[in-house]
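CO-FOLDING WORKSHEET

Operator: S.A.
Ligand of interest: zinc ion
Run index: 308
Mode: holo prediction, single chain
Checklist:
[x] sequence pasted
[x] SMILES validated
[ ] output reviewed
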Amino acid sequence: MRPDRSRFALGLDLGGTKVEACLVDGSRRVLARKRRPSEPGLGRERVVANVLELVAETAGGAPFEAVGMGAPGTYSAAADIMYGAPHTPLYEKPGLVSLLRSRLGAPLVVENDANCLALAEFFAQCHGRYSTVMAVILGTGMGSGLILGNRLHRGPNGNAGEIGHVSIDIDGRPCECGRRGCGEAYLSGPSLGRRYAERTGETLAPDRVFERFRAGDADARAVLDESCRIMGELFANCVNAFDLEAIVLGGGVSNIPLWYERVPPVMNKALFGVPGRDIPVLKAVLGDSAGVLGAAYLALREMRLMQF
Ligand SMILES: [Zn+2]
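OUTPUT RECEIVED:
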């Protein structure tokens, strides 16, 4: 597969508040990147108009051959719905993707946004070194994308990698999904904040809880100590299930340095089977551009310029 700088693809990252686009060439070079509000509250036509204007602006006349789009939840082509995007009701109604597809003038591939992040981070820091990797997004929720044997593993429904709803305690904290003890109920940004608030009456963002930890605050220490143990056990469950070689951590809560020092020892101690493994937890390197870049890779795969 030879990189080709004369062919172009577009990546889109459709979120609840903004949509982002990037233009790449066949050698994966990013040529332009832009964003604007997505405005789902104003209806389907408005979202599609916003996306199309952004696409035209970002492409700048380049003849892109395919478009990849990352979106919250799991897109079902049969129902034309993104399941599991509860914060954006419009995306859970049928019709948005098919309308966009009919107006784009190029093939459109839709994928879960965590899978897009996983793809981009995999090619940025794992490809050639590790073949079997899980990339976790920890922010307002907790999701992940799985690359198994150098292939993106979506599952038959595109629903694989919902690590945020793997339970580590059947009698544990209630989760928004209706179950108890899910990873998301402890480790998402809002959950971390809530656990600190239950001890202190003060609601803080995760970064601030970490600042308190560094300043010697006992409640912050208790919350983050427990979080490292929970994350380590949860990641060990995933390594045991998929024989992962590395875990990449991204999203707003991934900036806490503690995760990279304290989670791997807990995880590696909890592994079953082959001894002596030292699985790393790697910090995502692409920042908030990972999603849109991974979406562009979907388009490059559609054009047979990438394989995964
Ligand atoms: Zn859950």
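REVIEW:
The pocket of zinc ion is lined by residues 165, 175, 177, 179, 182, 184 (CB under 6 Å).
The chain has a mean pLDDT of 95.
[x] output reviewed
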